[in-house]
Design brief:
five-stranded antiparallel β-sheet, Enolase-like, domain 1, Uridine Diphospho-n-acetylenolpyruvylglucosamine Reductase, domain 3, alpha+beta, single chain
């Protein structure tokens, strides 16, 4: 199936791209890798008369280390994040999450910014980015602003992006001291499919007691979700009872959507299983070198 005719606009700067989007309003959309947008346009699910090609803007694909954290340009591909030595050293769970997306052909093309801005509730990378307290840099006619990723998602396929705004960069701060982050996913159809449930746990331990805990989830609400209120478990002794209490707190916050990958009840139960197993694994002492 072919794509309906459209004009491809090729800006040289972010400001020019923003102006093009504003000039054409709802008839225009930015395109980076296009792995989702092109399919939806072929299926006639979406139709735009103008596409603004962000690949023509230099410098948006860089991955760099910043004060122990990471800066990932919006046009960096999934494959480049997956294989980046900096990401593998500073945030290996993030590299793993990007490696879980689709297949190599998709990851060689799909962009980081496109993945996040699409705001699908089933994505792999957002849970890890949420657990790591990531921020996104947005730019438009009103200037540049920084938004916490947990505030970026507003609902199913809805984000904080204003008309004419573009997602330029993802900033991942240094992980908390003595913390470990793990991404676990459960796929009910195939390994290359969207996850039925995705869970990222960033946990630091203080002896046998809980330190800082952040849990990001996908597939369990209308948008990727950062579990709230987990600070109350700090200094609790690690135990099966504690893991059950954490899972109960998460259960109150999620609202799974039934789809081909499982019913809402099934996803709710699998969330408990996946989160608890991940917490159990994180709390085990690290193996001796």
């Amino acid at each position: 199936m072919t794509i309906p005719a459209f004009d491809l606009l090729r800006p040289r700067t972010v400001a020019e791209a923003s102006r093009m989007l504003l000039d054409h309003g709802e008839e225009a959309r930015p395109i980076a890798g296009g792995t989702t947008l092109v399919i939806l346009m072929k299926q006639r699910a979406l139709r735009f008369s103008h596409l603004v090609d962000l690949q023509s803007i230099p410098g948006l694909d860089r991955i760099t280390e910043t004060d122990g954290g990471l800066s990932i340009g919006a046009l960096a591909t999934h494959r480049s994040v997956e294989r980046s030595p900096v990401v593998l050293r500073r945030a290996p769970a993030l590299a793993h999450a990007f490696s879980c997306v689709g297949n190599v052909r998709i990851r060689e093309t799909a962009s980081v910014g496109g993945n996040l801005a699409h705001a699908d509730y089933r994505l792999d990378p957002p849970p890890v980015l949420l657990a790591l307290d990531a921020e996104v840099v947005l730019a438009g006619a009103g200037g540049t602003r920084v938004v916490a990723l947990e505030d970026f998602y507003r609902g199913m396929y809805e984000t904080a992006l204003e008309p004419g705004e573009l997602l330029l960069e993802v900033r991942v701060p240094r992980a908390p001291a003595a913390s470990r982050t793990v991404y676990s996913r459960f796929s009910s159809l195939s390994a290359n499919d969207w996850p039925c449930i995705g869970a990222a746990v960033c946990l630091s331990l203080e002896g046998e007691r809980m330190g800082e805990l952040r849990i990001g989830l996908s597939g369990v609400a209308e948008a990727p979700l950062l579990a709230a209120g987990l600070g109350r478990f700090r200094q609790e002794r690690c135990s099966e009872e504690l893991w059950d209490a954490v899972c109960a707190a998460i259960d109150e916050q999620i609202s799974p959507v039934s789809d081909l990958r499982g019913s809402a009840d099934y996803k709710r139960e699998m969330t408990r299983v996946l989160v608890k197993r991940t917490l159990q694994g994180q709390a085990r002492p690290a193996p001796s070198p």
